[in-house]
Known about the structure:
The chain has 191 residues and is mainly β. The chain has two helices and twelve strands; from the N terminus they run H-H-E-E-E-E-E-E-E-E-E-E-E-E. Strands 1, 2, 3, 4 and 7 form a five-stranded antiparallel beta sheet that branches. The protein is globular.
Amino acid sequence: MEEEIPIMISNRNFVLFIAVAVAFAAAAAATYANPGNKTDNASTDGFPLELRDSHAECRHEELPEGLEPTTHSLGAGQLLHIVPCWAGAYNLGSLVFMTEAQGGEPQLVTFDEYLPDGKRTPTEVLVNVEFNPESGVLTSFNKARGIGDCGSMGKWLLRTGTFQLVEFRARECGGEPVAPSEWPILYPAEE
């Protein structure tokens, strides 16, 4: 017969855990309620979905109904397309394309990310991506588990027509919950 080992958790830690879980559940709900950070000036018309459908990582047939690409004007004749690619319990993976407003073939954007061990790796799929058209900032928040206390998050800024990495954080799971703003910064490297 197995011996039961009691788990001790203080009231303070339990309350902190519940607060973090509720905050991240609300953020996940907002992501699905407003996919792609859709704004009043964003549209879904005219994106050639065969580009998404042909991408190896996309499982578009498993996407919840109603998740459509969003398109934002970047100014200077460019458009940004955020295209849902796959969905999990608390993550939504998307491809990001840029096109000329006057037509032309959408170009898939590749982003630099960093693994928790500090190694740089390129990716074409961003998770829980949001775009702020006023600031030109694109963010990604990949939750390694539902409460969102570990995983990775990046911030890219639109400069001269391309997205440049501004900050990337990552944390492996384990230990007590930690707010994403407290995760180790992998880029730019802290000196």
